[in-house]
Amino acid sequence: MPRRVFATPALFPTTTAGSLPKPAWLAEPNRLWPPWRLEGDELAAAKDDAIVLAIKLQEDAGIDIICDGEQARQHFVHGFLEAVDGIDFDKKVEMGIRADRYKAFCPTVIGELKLRGRAHAREARLARAHTARPLKFTLPGPMTIVDTIADAHYGDRVKMAMAFAGLLNEEARGLAADGVDVIQFDEPAFNVYMKEAAGWGIEALHRAIDGVSCKTAVHICYGYGIPANIAWKAGLGAEWRQYEQFFPALAASRIDQVSVECIHSHVPMGLLKLLDGKDVLLGVIDIATDTIETPEEVAAVIGQATQHVAKEKLVPCTNCGLAPMRRDIAEQKLQALAKGAALARQKFGK
Length: 350
Fold this sequence. Notes:
Layout lengths: L39 H22 L16 H4 L2 E14 L4 E14 L5 H9 L6 E5 L1 H5 L3 E2 L5 H21 L4 E5 L7 H16 L5 E5 L7 H8 L12 H5 L5 E4 L18 E7 L9 H11 L8 E5 L8 H22 L2
Parallel strand pairs: 2-4, 3-5, 5-6, 6-7, 7-8, 8-9
Antiparallel strand pairs: 1-2
């Protein structure tokens, strides 16, 4: 079937960081890692239905670059890991992640890592078949994976990260062949391990995108709006300058796009200048509050960013995923994102 064409706005096309709330009939609502309501073939069919619904909700809201909403994944990291051999999910180890910001029981790498087959072909192909708009698909980044899993085999974080990067590359090449237009690697660990991010973190991303034919992005926000993250951010001071330590390296990297948390954050907008040459996925929707942004608030953040980033390089986005939110709140925030970008085109498009 020939691919339909959608006229993406020339300025300020909108997208999301990736995840959306799951319908209550699929999984327990308002949870970051929700239990499934169904099993077996019924669960697989329900996941498909949820992806189609997520696409419809985004299109109705006016979002330009569509995601699958991560509807088939309980967690943004472990959804990929479920397709990887060499991991024992029954051998759980309690470990501090994100520099001990919080603890989690994590599965353990016990042998050589191998991808059993495609991890996300079903979701990507289904999404591609149901939207004419540009399609973005998210994968966990190598550094964030190794920060979210115990190691009883490699004995070296960098070596294990490069092994995961190779598997991510296999999947990313497949996603590009499936018709995905942008592949985004989620790396919240980047603003925790800044020195490493500028070094082997970007090297691992380069391994993950090697030979990938579509655009690539990295998402490096300050995390979901969960209590542990909110408490951590409260202690970061009046200015959040972590990005300053690795933005120059990202600007010199082969990654096409960088996703940055901006609205209601303390990231100095001037730091965006350090990403010269990259598309900036500008966080204009706060995922840590149920308050709905007004179009004027969204447009104002976009306007501030135009002082530091070329207009044609700005892609208004959410600060992070919307997965733990109430579904009605998430829908209204998507609408505010689209309306705010439209207002910004009127105000700043000349």
